[in-house]
Amino acid sequence: MAAPGAGTLGSGLSEPGAVAGDASLNGLEQDDSMTIAAAHLSDTKPRVLVIDDSKDVHRLLKARLRNEQLDLSHAESGAAGLEAVQQEAPAIVLLDLDMPGMDGFEVLRRLKDDAATIHLPVIVLSGLHSSQDKVTAFDLGAVDYITKPFDLTELRVRVRSALRMHGLLQMLAQRAQLDGLTGLWNRAYFDQRWGEEVASCQRHDRPLSLAFFDADHFKSLNDTYGHPAGDQVLIGIAQIFQRVLRQTDIACRYGGEEFAIIMPETEPDEAVKVCERVRDTLENVCWERHPERGVTCSIGLCGSNGSVSVDAAAWLQATDEQLYKAKQGGRNRIAVHQFGGPGKPKLKKAG
Ligand SMILES: [Mg+2]
């Protein structure tokens, strides 16, 4: 499933393109003998984009960085460089200052003005001896500079250093979206992702389902066995998500004892089966701290087989209403509503 890799679950799973935080930390702790690939930590080579109007510079860098595990791409003007940044999402950029048309300063300014690229590490390539140019480049947000002609050792060290920074920034960005207790995605990530998934469902007329899971009688469990036992249950539920959900499902801790599962490309009938597997697995867990007391959950589910004219907030509200119905219906069950489907919500009984 698409749960984040870091956290207490130890599955090491993450979404395609996401960076595994722990691997990044390992890379950062190593010394300079590390390779650039190790520093970057993904199994694909880090992409380094060179923006320079000189073909000779591209040839030279290709030769000099041949033995580094890099995916080197190039652009020969400022405008082409900005385009390549959008298309290729490089890990770092090597940027020439002196170019006809849009110069490096302007490229840097535009990269730093765009929220999507503001943190992209840029190393300035400068053939100029003017220290004022370097100062200006740093003021504009460059992380480093390399003076032409290139010194091979210096070039490698500075590229490695920028790649480390890229890895660290990605790790921090991902950690800020994780729930500290369960290692699942947190509420902030959910809010952002849910909006994107609803928009995508509407644009492409694709199925989408959303489920809210709420642990039953959780307050009483905390009161009876203490908060560490309650925490253990939350962690246990997250582990069940890890085991039972599919690769494409997105599990989030919504708050307290409530979890949200986004199921892209999933019709409500299929989503019910997925949720039922979780419900059934949880019901049968024997808890170390309280073997005499099991834990169940109630589930509200709302889905669509195709495009619907429901916005993200209304969809959430409708899912919450189903959760309420599952609770009212006796807990340990799923209540389902299908948008644009058979009008009457149905209650699926436990077991
Ligand atoms: Mg130039």
Record the SSE blueprint:
Layout: H1 21-29, H2 36-40, E1 47-51, H3 55-64, E2 71-75, H4 78-88, E3 92-96, H5 104-113, E4 122-126, H6 131-140, E5 144-147, H7 152-175, H8 187-204, E6 208-215, H9 218-225, H10 227-244, E7 250-255, E8 258-264, H11 268-283, E9 297-304, H12 312-328, E10 334-339, E11 346-348
Parallel strand pairs: 1-2, 1-3, 3-4, 4-5, 9-10
Antiparallel strand pairs: 6-8, 6-9, 7-8, 10-11
Helix pairs in contact: 1-7, 4-5, 9-10, 10-11
The protein binds magnesium ion (MG).
Magnesium ion is lined by residues 52-54, 96, 98-99.
Concise summary:
44% of the residues lie in helices and 18% in strands. It is α/β, with parallel strands linked by helices and 351 residues long.
